[in-house]
Amino acid sequence: MLSNQLLHKAVQDVKNIGGVECAVWDNRGVCLVMTSEKMTAWEREAAAFGESGAEEMTGKGISMFLIREEEEPVYILGVAGDGPETVLSGRFGASQITNLLFAYRDRMDKNRFIQNLILDNMLVVDVYNQAKKMKIPVELRRVVFLIESKNEGESLVLETMRGLYATGMRDFVTAVDERHVILVKALEATDDYSSLNRIAHEITDTLNMEAMVGVRVAYGTIIEELKDVSRSYKEADMALQVGRVFYTEKNILAYNELGIGRLIHQLSPSLCEMFLKEVFEHGAAEKFEEEELSTVYTFFDNNLNISETARQLYVHRNTLVYRLEKIQKKTGLDVRVFEDALTFKIAMMVADHMNDMSQRD
C-alpha cells in the first residue's frame, strides 16, 4: 500500500496534466485523497463500482478505474467527466499508480531481503536464489556502514541516506531500529580502506549539513560475496560498541582499527574483575577525581612529556608532578614510567568496559 502523500502527488499530477478533478478510494469506497471537495459526492458510486468487479466505468459525469496489486484490487481512481480525453487522463493516472505500487513493492521486497541477510536469517542457498530473482549481483566487493544518530528519532537520517545511495541496484539502505541506519555499499576494484574512511567522512559531513543531524559512522571489513554481508555488519556493530566505550571522541570507527579496545571488549567479566583487583587492590578505579583523570590522559596524549603536558593544562610543572604522585599513592603505579603508564591505561579501559557491561545488564 502507498502512503497518502504518494497518492496525493499522483492525483495532483493527473489534475495538472489532464485538467480534471480526481480522487482515490480504497476498494470499499472510502476516500483516501482528492483534488477537490466536490469528489466526495461520488463516494456511493465508488463503493458500488468496487463491489461490481468491473475494470472501468464511464458515464453519469464520472469515470472510474480499478487499480490492482498482484491481481488483488486495492484502489479506485475516479476522474470527473466521461469524455474521451477524461477517460484517457484516468487511464494514465491508473497506470501511474499501478507503477508506483510495483516500485514500492519491489523496494520493500529488497529491503526485507537485505534486512534478513544482515541479521543472518537466511540459508546460503536462499540468499543466492532470492538475489537471482531480484537481479542483485552476488559476487561484488561490498562493505557495511552502520550510522548511529546521536539523538533518538532522527528519521531524516534514513531518508537522506536513501536519497544519496539507494538509487540503483548496487547500494542498499535500510534500518534496524530508530537510531541505526545501515548502508550496504558496493565498491570499485580500486577502493581500499582509505576510500572507506573518505566515504564515512562524506556521510557524517552530509548528514550534518543537509539533515542537521550528528552521527557516528562505523564500518566493517571489505567482503567479496553477498552472503558475507552479515559478517561485515557484525564487525561494524562491534566497532560502534567499542567506540561507545573507549573512543567517545571519534565519529568514524573502523573495525580494522580498533586496537586494544577490541581485545578488552571481548574479555569476560570474571577476567576483567580479576585484573582490576590485581592492579587496584583497594578499588582505586572508582576513586579518581575528574581532574586527576584529565591530567593523566593528557599526559599520555603527550607521550609522557611533563613539560608539554603542563603547558597544555596551563599548570606549573611541580603541580603536574604533584597530581601524578597522588595517582601513584592511590594505585602504586608511577605513570611517569612507561610500564606503569601502560598498566594504568589498560586498567582504566577494563574499568570502562566493566561499567558498560553493568549498565547493559
Helix vs. strand class: alpha+beta
The count of strands amounts to 11
Q: Which quaternary structure do these chains form?
A: single chain
> What is the approximate shape?
elongated
Spatial separation of the terminal alpha carbons: 40 Å
Helix content: 40-55%
Proportion of residues in β-strands = 15-25%
Q: How large is the count of helical segments?
A: 13
Q: What is the CATH homologous superfamily assignment of the largest domain?
A: Reverse transcriptase/Diguanylate cyclase domain
CATH topology of the largest domain: Alpha-Beta Plaits
Q: Could you give the order of the helices and strands?
A: HEEHEEEHHEHEEHEEHEHHHHHH
Low-pLDDT stretches are: none
User: From the coordinates shown, what is the CATH architecture of the largest domain?
Assistant: 2-Layer Sandwich
Average pLDDT works out at: 86
**What's the gyration radius in Å?**
30 Å
Mind telling me the CATH class of the largest domain? Alpha Beta
- Number of structural units classed as domains: 3
Main sheet: strands, sense, barrel: 6 strands, mixed
How would you describe the overall organization of this protein?
The protein is α+β, with helices and mostly antiparallel strands and 361 residues long. The protein has three domains: 104 residues, 2-Layer Sandwich (Beta-Lactamase), CATH 3.30.450; 119 residues, Alpha-Beta Plaits, CATH 3.30.70; 94 residues, Arc Repressor Mutant, subunit A, CATH 1.10.10. The chain has 13 helices and eleven strands. The strands form two sheets. Strands 6, 7, 8, 9, 10 and 11 form a six-stranded mixed sheet that branches. The longest helix is centred in the first third of the chain and has 35 residues. It is elongated, with a radius of gyration of 30 Å. The protein starts with a helix and ends with a helix.
